[in-house]
Amino acid sequence: MDNISFCKILLVEDDLPLAALICQYLRQHHCDVVHTSTGEETVETADSTTFDIVICDVMLPDISGFELFKLLKTKISCPVLFLTALDESKDQVFGLELGAADYIVKPIDPTVLLARIKLHLRRSSKLRTAKKIIINDLVFDDDLKQIHHENNIIPFTIQEFEVLFILAKYHLDIVPREHLFKQVIGREYNGLDRAIDLIISRLRKKFIELELDFITIRSIRNKGYLFSCIS
Length: 231
Description:
It is built from 8 helices and 12 strands. It is of the alpha/beta class. It has 2 domains: 8-127, 3-Layer(aba) Sandwich (Rossmann fold), CATH 3.40.50.2300; 130-229, Winged helix-like DNA-binding domain superfamily/Winged helix DNA-binding domain (Arc Repressor Mutant, subunit A, Orthogonal Bundle). Helix 2 runs parallel beside helix 3 (65-72).
């Protein structure tokens, strides 16, 4: 069965003609699509319904999609994809640094949007079926998509968790950037895309903010990243 069949998608889009077209196309591919057009409506919907993926515009009438994302991440654990006309690099970097799974610039071919959705659903499915990794006092639970330290949950986004889980598999070994990029982003590394670098940078900042000084991710020149946990 196609991995997108019967999945539940929340589309947050205030351009009603565009939203209608996206909903129609996704429903033709057997998706259960719920459409909202404001931040307030979206938060209420997320409180009452579980989704497999969220597609969110950035320019909404009552709130920025970036601010809405922060509210949604306290309520949901599924991937969030920004779909927006904001095409400047600074906006893309900001959206990805917030923890969004993807940043898609309008206009986009519906077949490409569908492919992106399938990619992130596959990645989410992998997160649900993997096992636990235990390193000293850290427990990486890939079924729950959580990292525990001394019975406390450390707050990481799904994408941050996915990077850490892969690095933890190769604890004290170098993980090539190309491998990490392909596993997390879902395509071959082109030598220019900074998506993984941004995630690693965000993780290092969190280690400092959360006083997790026993966790380090070292950049090994021309080779990749090395994860270590000494507690």
